[in-house]
Amino acid sequence: MPLVPLPLRRMATDVYERRLATVLQREHAPVPRHVGVILDGNRRWARMMGQTSESGHQRGADKIVDLLGWCDDAGVEVVTLWLLSTDNLTRPEAELAPLLAIIESLVTDLSAPGNDWTIAVVGALDLLPAETARHLKETAATTGGRPGVHVNVAIGYGGRREIADAVRSLLQAEAAKGATLEEVADVLDVEHIAEHLYTKGQPDPDLVIRTSGEQRLSGFLLWQSAHSEFYFCDAYWPDFRRVDWLRALRAYAARSRRYGS
After folding, report:
1. Is there a contact between 81 and 37 (Cβ–Cβ < 8 Å)?
2. Active site residue 88
3. Which helix (H) or strand (E) holds 190?
4. For a Cys-Cys bond, which of 123, 165, 239, 240 suits 156, CB 3.0-4.6 Å?
5. What integer pLDDT is reported at residue 2 of this predicted model?
6. CA nearest 117: which of 151, 83, 140?
7. What CATH topology corresponds to 30-253?
8. pLDDT at residue 4 is higher than 80
9. Active site residue 189
10. What is the pTM (predicted TM-score) of this model?
């Protein structure tokens, strides 16, 4: 079978994308309030393209602005982006240092005047180099109160670490009030722990998207995703397109959500 010329494939994709957008709008499809995204496949994309890992991470960072624009258009309220796991922090310094620099630059760009996004950096920032952690926190702090999408940038993040940090924070807060361990144990419930998560006060993710064809959470939002819908996309993150985003929204809209069953 002869290959379809690239311009024709692009034209067909554009037509399909417009059709998807029209169908979602016409059917008043439900929109997830909170979307979590595992931005996977940057290094594999780079290898496929014959480029360096750093180039793949930079291409992936550039794609995030597109995603946030699509979220704005759809009416999504909260987006959580997993950029760097606690496991990633064990990578060789030669690979980790450029990645941290890309992340710092990304947070600076997302926080720039003229953007409407509120940026929050979540994760175990104490595991990061002190200067990196300071830059990220100070830069994100300048975006408070903006009217657009609330963007959680998960850096040095691990789901188990988050739960452990939440329990530790809860115990410290109760101890400061003079409560004993036995008193805390008597009243402890899931709501108390949720109030100390990195995403406290935010709705749990309705939809979690993972790119690159992998079909696992790898510890992403372990607590919050108990009732989330999942969408796994074969495209590596740098190649994630608006049509892929619309497919995820269509898949979410087609599902009948069953909380707890």
Report:
1. yes
2. yes
3. helix 190-194
4. 123
5. 57
6. 151
7. Undecaprenyl pyrophosphate synthetase (3.40.1180)
8. no
9. no
10. 0.92
